[in-house]
């Protein structure tokens, strides 16, 4: 079912289309993160359509804990449950192996966790991750991997990457089995593998070559934006992308700032996700043509301008900086909602502008112009 079509290239920047059972994704794309099948900040699936979201991203580990993936399955899968008819990507729970380091134990069969909610013992391995994602019935399932902290010793990284490869093979086998079952909701569920290797370029390249041979539906670069510098991250992307297939989408996990996205698109990345725009919005930090501003600053107290002049998001079309600042000061939930809507719209519109720039052979100039406008504040 899945088909990635490369429509255009400007040097390494790629403009494509990715056909899925839940619709065609125009790439490069930014996925809007709804960890628990909801965007934090009181943003609904209807809002997501209004602000131009193409793909929603939810979290396997968190949905397994609540409400429980069996409940989501019984409700008809994630699309029906949250009333969203466009593509959904579910991450595998692998990142929680990294972020819950104090509450887990990694073994060959998988990872033993303690729930961050109530301390209950949980086990998740490749098969369990695929089964949970099968119950969620997402469009794209991510393989279960270990996200390695940076820096890590070379020896640890080599062992971890080898295990991630073995886990990927198990994920593929289990997904093939699950997709063949009559009771499976989405028999066209896609599997993306994840490239790991810390900041060791040779390990990264070797791993990219290995997983490319598995002929998966897409490939992610994982284990970045976890402690290394932006320069180190760009070096890893430069090293890895040439060794991933050109006819499959490439996804840079958990990145990032608008400037990071421009740099990664220039290096051949198609998919992005990050909690950053929504998290920033909930704290009054909003993205504009001139870079990021903090609406809580006193200078916006009587500012009658919208957050970003010319912006067509619901917040900017209807409200002033002064009013939204007042909402924050009064602890009104509407403040969070408006700023999250604005930031996600900003990101979705940025991706649309990037696609148009590549279509018109103008991405190089577009990138330079944006970085200069943001002046290090983006």
From TrEMBL:
Reaction equations catalysed: 7-aminomethyl-7-carbaguanine + guanosine(34) in tRNA = 7-aminomethyl-7-carbaguanosine(34) in tRNA + guanine
Any one of the GO CC terms: cytosol
Enzyme class: transferase
Domain of life: Bacteria
Sections of the chain in a coiled coil: none
Catalytic-site annotation from UniProt: 91 (proton acceptor), 273 (nucleophile)
Cofactor binding, note field: Binds 1 zinc ion per subunit.
Domain annotation tRNA-guanine(15) transglycosylase-like: ranges: 12-374
Membrane listed as a keyword: no
Positions bound to Zn(2+): 311, 313, 316, 342
Binding site for substrate: 91-95, 145, 196, 223
UniProt region (RNA binding), positions on chain: 254-260, 278-282
Residues that span the membrane, as ranges: none
E.C. designation(s): 2.4.2.29
Any one biological process term the GO annotation gives: tRNA queuosine(34) biosynthetic process
Statement: the UniProt record of this protein carries the keyword Glycosyltransferase: yes
SUPFAM superfamilies hit by this protein: tRNA-guanine transglycosylase (SSF51713)
Gene3D superfamilies named in the record: Queuine tRNA-ribosyltransferase-like (3.20.20.105)
Record HAMAP family: Q_tRNA_Tgt
Entry function: Catalyzes the base-exchange of a guanine (G) residue with the queuine precursor 7-aminomethyl-7-deazaguanine (PreQ1) at position 34 (anticodon wobble position) in tRNAs with GU(N) anticodons (tRNA-Asp, -Asn, -His and -Tyr). Catalysis occurs through a double-displacement mechanism. The nucleophile active site attacks the C1' of nucleotide 34 to detach the guanine base from the RNA, forming a covalent enzyme-RNA intermediate. The proton acceptor active site deprotonates the incoming PreQ1, allowing a nucleophilic attack on the C1' of the ribose to form the product.
Protein family (similarity comment): Belongs to the queuine tRNA-ribosyltransferase family.
Name of the protein in question: Queuine tRNA-ribosyltransferase
Species this chain originates from: Clostridium cellulovorans (strain ATCC 35296 / DSM 3052 / OCM 3 / 743B)
């Amino acid at each position: 079912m899945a088909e990635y079509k490369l429509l255009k290239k400007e040097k390494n920047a790629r403009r494509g289309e990715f056909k899925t059972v839940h619709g065609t994704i125009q790439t490069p794309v930014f996925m809007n993160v709804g960890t628990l099948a909801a965007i934090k900040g009181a943003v609904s699936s209807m809002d997501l359509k209004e602000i131009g979201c193409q793909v929603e991203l939810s979290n396997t580990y968190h949905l397994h804990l609540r409400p429980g993936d069996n409940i989501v399955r019984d409700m008809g899968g994630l699309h029906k449950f949250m009333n969203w008819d466009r593509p959904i990507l579910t991450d595998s729970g692998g990142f929680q192996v990294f972020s819950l380091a104090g509450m887990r134990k990694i073994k060959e069969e998988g990872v033993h966790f303690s729930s961050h909610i109530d301390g209950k013992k949980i086990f998740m391995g490749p098969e369990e991750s695929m089964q949970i994602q099968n119950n969620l019935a997402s469009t794209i399932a991510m393989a279960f991997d270990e996200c390695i902290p940076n820096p890590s010793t070379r020896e640890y990284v080599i062992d971890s990457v080898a295990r991630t490869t073995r886990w990927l093979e198990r994920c593929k086998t289990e997904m093939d089995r699950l997709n063949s079952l009559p009771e499976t909701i989405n028999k066209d569920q896609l599997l993306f593998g994840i490239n790991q290797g810390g900041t060791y370029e040779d390990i990264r390249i070797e791993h990219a070559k290995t997983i490319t041979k598995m002929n998966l539906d897409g490939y992610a670069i994982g284990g970045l934006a976890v402690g290394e510098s932006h320069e180190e991250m760009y070096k890893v992307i430069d090293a890895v992308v040439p060794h991933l297939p050109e006819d499959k989408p490439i996804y840079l996990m958990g990145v990032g700032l608008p400037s990071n996205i421009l740099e990664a698109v220039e290096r051949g990345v198609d998919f992005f996700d990050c909690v950053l725009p929504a998290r920033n919005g909930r704290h009054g930090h909003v993205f504009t043509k001139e870079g990021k501003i903090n609406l809580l600053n006193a200078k916006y107290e009587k500012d009658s301008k919208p957050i970003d002049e010319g912006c067509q998001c619901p917040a900017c079309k209807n409200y002033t900086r002064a009013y939204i600042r007042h909402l924050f000061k009064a602890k009104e939930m509407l403040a969070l909602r408006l700023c999250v809507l604005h930031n996600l719209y900003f990101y979705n519109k940025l991706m649309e502008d990037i696609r148009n720039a590549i279509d018109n052979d103008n991405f190089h100039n577009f990138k330079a112009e944006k970085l200069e406008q943001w002046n290090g504040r983006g």
